[in-house]
Structure formats: structure tokens, C-alpha cells
Amino acid sequence: MDNCDLEKLSCSGGKLEPPFKPDITCYKVTVESKVSKVTLDLLTSDCGASYKILFGDGSNTIKLNDGLNAVAIEVVSEDGTAKKYCIEMTKLSASSAKLCDLAIEGGFKLQPEFSASDYEYASSVPADLTMVVIQPKLPDKNMQVSVNGEDSSKAVLLNAGDTVVAIKVSSADGTNSQVYLIAISREQIPVAVTFCNVKDEIKYECPVSLTAFYRPASINQSDSKHIFSAPYIDMLTRRSKVDPLSESPLGEGWKVPELDLDKKMSAAPVKCFFAHCGCESTIKLAEVVSHAKDCPHKPPVDLDTKEVTETLWYKTHFESTDNLEIETKHTSEIRNWEKRLQKAVGKDNVEDLGTHAEEQLNLYRQRLPKPGDIMQYAEGQSPLDFLEQAAVHYSSAIKLKPRDSKLHYLLGRTLEEHHYAEEMYGLKKKDTGDAQELDSAKTAGRLDEILAVCKLHGFMGTPTLENQLKALDTEFHQLKEQGQATKADYIQTLYLWISKKAKKDGQSSLADEESWLHRALLKYLDAWSLSQDSWEHNLHAGRLLLLQGKSREALQHLQTALALRPSQPALRFYTGMALLQQEGNSETQEKEAAMYLQQGLEYVMARALAPSEHDRGEKLDHSDPLSIVNVQFLRGCYSLGDLLSKNAPSGKSMTAEQVYHIVVSLAAQGVARCVCRGEVSQQLEWVLLDGHFALFQNLIQQPGAAKQAWIAQRCQALSALIRLTSINPCRELLDMQEKVCQVGVVTMPHNSHALCQLGVTQLAQYDSEPESEQGQEALTDACLSFQASIELEGSPQTGDAPEKLAKQAWWQKRLAQKARAAKETASKSTGAPGPSEAGAAGKATGRGRGTPGRGGAAAAAAKSGAAARGVKAAPAAKAAPAAGRRAPAKADGVAKAPGKPSSKTQLSPSKSKQECSIPQAKPDVVEAPSSNTRIAAPAIVNPKSHAPRLGLARALSRSADTQQEACSLYQEVISMAPEVHDAYIELADLLVKTDPLAAVDVYNRFPLRPIAEQSFDDAFITGEIVRILMKQELYDHPLLGPNLIAYGKVMGLGCLEKYIDVLEGKFKTDLLKSMYAEDP
């Protein structure tokens, strides 16, 4: 009686979505454009019920309009109960040109998900996929579709990087069309490639990874187009919004995808990755990964166990029943920090605890941030929360089963992952009280305090790490002598904090007993002590002991593990590293070490080139001994390159150059994955720079006139990387930068930009040793370099050395040495060729120093200023020139430097050299190609730039006698590049002591963006205006209120508290009301 359901409902023109069910009342159906009417076929469940069609004339035949037709069917039962069914009938317009679905064969996801009204999509596919089939779905069979102008069933060939696929849809009546675009990106080729043609090698070389471009993008309006791989230019421009190569500020729409270049490059012939194993195939770049997966010359997965069992050490210690005696004395124990982790509630089953820990680790990996992400998480939902829960559950399981070695081992892996979470991804607990766990603002504050101490003791700009430690040590002893113990203790804290940044690997972290790496080592040793015959426990204990500098003890663990599992690649690799670090290695041991290291590297290559789904997930396991973000692994590869450069490769050995290229490529990928500039990022950058420099030295030692442009290209690239690095400035970095810049100038002495970079380096040399004769010489040369750079603007980049370059001390020494070498050669009758410019390019440099400029290791060799630039992570300090410091009044004279710091015994800093790699016999100088082989380059003109003027202003600001000239140059820089913050800041710093309001006027000229768009650099400007006006007690100054509001909006109300207190005490009610009304 009350049944008002339909038993049947269908539509003649199309299928109902969803399929009909009596209890579902809403449906949709789409019909083709040629269909003018449809017939509804329906039947009630109860023969006594009736229905009414509420559309048109009420008949079962529905006359359709174009577009949406809402049809309702009311069913009434015998007792009057009513139910309404709705059908949204869409008649396609004959002029419609929209798809109803779009997909890529193979199930590759589109971003965003398909919607007929969205026309642009992106998708990512594996690196070995060379073609795809696009699957467009038409709602009307009378419509037409093509893919890249061809039949939609035809496969689309993919470039090595990005491929844009155009799907053109034409309407049924042919009057309209619509294009859908899919940007398909292949995953990055995981290791370095070698082009068959040297010209291709130069043309397609990324300045960062020194291998083929990946998704190449150029910088808009860059002179002589500057092209980078997309991930690396994104990384560099997150650090500094300038063109990395020219230092020109980036404008709107600065990034231009180079799709044509990608296509041409993809067709270029390259060598197989396993050419050293005998593969002679020549393959297109786009097909090299798919070839490598099935290459018959690929090294075998199963390594020959005899390569281990036939060694002397194996026969001595493991062929009999006796094992190698390990000197490690360790007993498993539960430490206080571990007890604090044993807090899992309501779980008393070890297996359940382990399962839950794995689940938490999976959630941690899924939620790890990517570079550029805004890290905002709900309470308890950050990746670090999940990682901490995994540690809690493993620790709680250990409490229940303390003799289970695997639990100790798994906890060690989790604790090691904590190290990467903090130092690679910047994940830290908000409520931590640990002095070392500083947020970016506190880090910036400490750096500013250190730079202030350096300035007090005569070290200007951004001093090297050695000079920072020297200044802190001097201050420490002076405070001790004055009886200021509390302040001295704080200075010692700063000393220890900054000295930890000296390491190229994780050794400094291991030395800290509170660090995650040290705790991980303890858990690995706990696991080993409970199960000494486990190869995994020995491997992880051995590699961290090796990192700790205990190479003998580490080798014992690693050889024990290798004897248990002779074909395990990671064991072979780390055993090779440990062998190289033993004293008195024989040639046989070095060959064994090289073999093991190469086998480990080849395993990583094979795994990266043909990853399984499991391997894809493992890439996020940072404690994997062969992970590309494991600095120890990359350092081991670098040591293999060093070893091969000493000993000529034989058989199927890689070349040193090939290994260095792989190291650079992997390190670049690792740096690009870092979310923060933490310890891991800095260590990876060291590997990247060392690999770059090794390849740079190899290149300049190779004969051939065609290499000149390549050398100049490498000089420019390496200089940019050093300038933008997050590594703290140190002597080694200074040395590297000077050699690179000098070779760049020798190669192209008429290049304005090269001379400017040399000037930046020379100025940093002066700041490093201002009181020395070499420092004074460097300052004179810096002024000459900047002046030469300015004078060459508008002239061709080719030509002989300008006069101001020829005057420089290092250039004259180089020429003198070249002349002596030529004379010695001429006196010999051996017929040997005469000396090239390569032999003298750097041998006479003496100082051997260089430094980065803005934003990096010696960011802005002479930046000035007293206040911290907000909460920007490790901002470049703005150090004002010391009053009375004398610099050249003219280009070729320098005067007396400031007084010498205290010579008291220094606190002993950690060593900064890499402990894991063997030392390479590198020359003190860098060579450049012979001037006789210099080839004609295109007639490129040196552009006019603010950079050399800014550099010259900084150099002149070093002396009170030439500060007026510096001020004029700063004004010129502001006119040329009004968006450059540093010019305003440094000019204001020169004026603030004598004329504070003039400094305010300078700051006020900066073209600030709307408050909502202002950056931390902008906030530094507004903050300085506020600081100066408040210090001068100019509370009614018209600039005070607006800048207080702007500063507070960017930095937060907390930064204004001290000013608010003062204003309240001065009864500046109206000003305070205006501030609160803006609600900063």
C-alpha cells in the first residue's frame, strides 16, 4: 500500500549513472549532440502506485534542450506516500569541444585530477619510460580528437626531461576546438651521462650537476642565455633571488622552460653507463636508462665471493674456525635518554609494538616535506611526531625484551633517521629546550653575535671560520682576565657551537654524546654485543665507528661482516673505505679497496637505473648506507676518484673523471632534496664543491684549444656555487675560490664579470688577513679588479689583459714565473714543448685564497650593518667598517691595517678536513690553457652591471679616508639597481654614526612592496628605520609609525615589545593606537 519505489528506470539515449537501484533517487545521463529526444522506460514496484513525469508535456518522451535538462519523476503509492526520482539529462552541444575523461596508459596520475573544464595537467613517469599512449575519452562519437596533431592511439615519444603533449578536441559540428595540455616529466636520470661529442658535452652541461640538463630552464633576459636544470635553479633561487651566474636580480616571469633544447638534447648520442665494462653502444639520451636496465655488460648482481675469500685477511682470520678479534668492548645497557622513550601506553606485546613502530615510520616517510613546502602540521601530525612514536615503540619493546638484538638495531636506525629529520628537513620539536636545537631566528642571532665579536677584534665582512674562532678565543681570554666569567662562558658556548660547523662529514655529530648519530651508534653497538655474528649489526656499527675516526676498530667489524656475507655490496663498499684509512697500505690493499668501492658504486647505479617499487620507497630511508644523501657514502665515492687519479685504471675499472662526475651528480640531487640548510645540506655541498673542483682541475690539465670556453663555463659555475653555498667561510673555501677566479680571469682576461668575481675574492682575502702584507696586497688588487671590470663594460669579452689587471701582484708573479719557466725550457736541448700559460696560472699566487660573495660561504665579502635581518635563516651579517681603518685612497695603495688580535692560546677547534677520504695530492695552483691556443669566441659585449660598483664601494669603505668615495658609489648602485637591499644597508651603515637621519633617508628610498608581500630582507629595512628613530628619541617622526606597523606585520608583535614599552612610558597614545588598529 505504501510502496512508492520504481522497479525499473532507463533512458533510451544513454546509460544512467549510477546504475539504477530503487533506493537511489538521483541520476545523471549524457547524450550525444544529435539526439533530440529520449524515451524513459519505467515501471513501479507496486502495480497500484502511479507516477508523473515532471518535465515538458509529462510524456515518457523527453524533448531535450542543449545543456542540462532536469527531469523529475514523482511516484505516489496507493496510500498517498510520494517519492521523487531526479535525472539530470545533459545533451551535448554540437559546438562543445570538451573531453569527458583523460588518462595516460599505465595508470600514471594526472595533477590535478581530470575535470572537463581544466585544460592543463602534469604527470610524472619513470626515467626508463621512453613513450606513452594518451587516452582521451570523447563524450560524443561525432567529436574528433588528436594528440600532438596525430591519431590519439599513436604513442608519444618522451624527451629526457619534460614533454608537453597537446590533445586537441574538435566539436561535433566542427565549429569549435579546445586544447588540453599534459606536461609529462620523466624522473631524473640518476647518474651522470657522457655525451659522445665534446661539443654536446659543453652545450648540454648543467652548471650545478655537470651532467646533462634535466628539465632545462633559462633565466629570462639573461645575457648569453643562462640555463640550469629545473631542480637546481629552483634550489639556488630559494637562497637568493638573483641570477646565480650574473648576480642580476630576478624579475617577474624569470624562469623560462627550454622545451626545444630538451628535445634536441634528448636525441643527442651518449655512451652507456657501463662503457667501462665493455659496452660500446651509442644511445640517444632519451633511451639511455631503458638501455642500461638490460645492458648485457651491466655488472653482475651476485658478486664473486672469491674476491673476498681469496684475500690474505680472510684466509688469516676466517678460513679456519678462528675469527678476527674485535677490540670493541661494549655491553648493552639502558641509558637515561632511552628510559625516557620507554613510555608506550597499553601495549605489552613486543610484536605489536614492532608493527606499530613500522606503521609510524611509514607515516613519517609519507609526510616528509619537500623543498619549498610550508611546514605547518596539526598537533601530533608532523613527520617528527611519527618518527618519535616509532622510537618510543621500539624502546618500549626493548624494555619487554632487552636481549633481542634486532630491536636495538631497529631503534638505532630510527635514531639515525632523527639526524636527517633535523639536519636535512629542519624538523624540530617546538618545545625543545636543548641549546643546540635553535630555530632560524636564534641561529641568526648567534651568528650576528659572533660577527659582532669578530668586528670588535678587527675581522670585517664575513670572516672565515678560522678567524671567527680566533676572535671568539681572544674575547674569551679577555673576559676571563676581566673577571667576567658568565660572559666568558657564553662566548665559549658560541665557540663550541660554531666549531661544530667545521666538519665536512658527520664526525662532529658523533662527537656530541647527545646527538642522534651518537645515540644510534650506541644502539648499533648494543645490538652487536648481543649478536656479534650479525652482518647487519657489524656493518652499521663499523660504518659509524669509521665516521668517528676509529678506522682500525671499524675495519674489524666490517671484515667480520664481509666474511659472513661476502657478496653484500654495502659491506664491500665500507670495507674498502676502511682499508684506505689504515696506515701503511700496500698496493695490493689499495687495489682491493678500489675494487670494493667500485662494486658498491656500481650496485647503487644499477639499483637507481632499474628501481623496483620497493627500491623506490627505500630512497627515503636515509640510514641506508648507500643512500645518495649519506655523506659518508659520497665521500667514499670521492675517495675512489682520488685513488683512480693516482693509479691508472685497468681492466673494467672506472676512470677518476667518471667517478667524480657521478659524485657531483649524486651530491647535487642530495642538496636539491634538502629542505633546510642544516648539517646534512652543508656536508653534501662540500662533496658537491670538492667534486666540482676535482673535475675543474682535470679539465684545465687537458690539452686542446677547444677547452677554453669549457673552462670559462666551469669557472663561472663553480664560482656561483661557492658564492651561494650555505657552508661557513673557511680557509679551504677561500683557497678554492681564488684558484677558480684566477683561472677564469686568465682564460678570459677581458671578461668584466670574471674580473668582478676575482675582486670579490680578493676583498674576502683582505678581510681574512687585514693586518698582513698579503691582505693589503689583496685589497689593492681587489680595487684594481673592480675598476677594470667597470672600465670593460660595453667592450667585447675577448681581448688582452687590461692595464689594471696587469698591475696586480698575482698577475705579475704569474708572468714572472712563466718567463722563468720559458727560459729554463729554452736552455734544455730535449726538444720538450715550451711552457704554457697553464703552468703559471696560479703557481705564483702565493696566497691561494678565494671566497664566495653574497649569500654563501663568505656572503658579501664586505657587507655592513648592526641589526639582525629578522628571522631569516643564517642571514648574511651587515658589518660596518671599522672606524679609522685605512684602505687605498687610490686604486694602487693601501695603508696600515688594524691592530693584531690577542695571541693567547686558542681553544682547540675540530679539524675541518674530511676524515673518510684519502688525501689527494692537489697542486697549490690551478692551471689555465695556453694563450697561444686561445680561440676566438663570439663577439659578446660586457654588460653594464651594478655588481663591480658595489664591490668597489665595499673595498673603499674599508678606510675612513675613502668612505666618501664609497658613499658615491653606493648611490650609483642604488640608481642602477634600486631593488638591491645591500646597497641601502651598507650606505646607511656608513652614515648612521655621523648623521642618523641621513641613514633613515637612505633606507626610506628603498622601494618597499605592499606589506603583505614584504620579505625578511624588507623587514630589515623597516626595522632599521624604527631602531634609528627610537634611539634618537624621534617619537613624532612621520616615518616611525608606518615602519613600526610594517616591521610588526612581517616579524610579529613580539619584536615590537621593547619599543611599545618605551612608547607607553613616553605617553605616545595616538601612535600606539594606530599600531594596534593595524593588528600586526
From TrEMBL:
GO terms for molecular function: ubiquitin protein ligase activity. Residues 816-861, 875-929 are annotated as: Disordered. Residues 845-856 have a biased composition (Gly residues). Residues 902-917 have a biased composition (Polar residues). GO terms for biological process: protein polyubiquitination; ubiquitin-dependent protein catabolic process. Residues 831-844, 875-886 have a biased composition (Low complexity). Residues 8-91, 100-187 form the Cadherin-like beta-sandwich-like domain. It holds the Pfam family Cadherin-like. This is Cadherin-like beta-sandwich-like domain-containing protein. It comes from Alosa alosa.
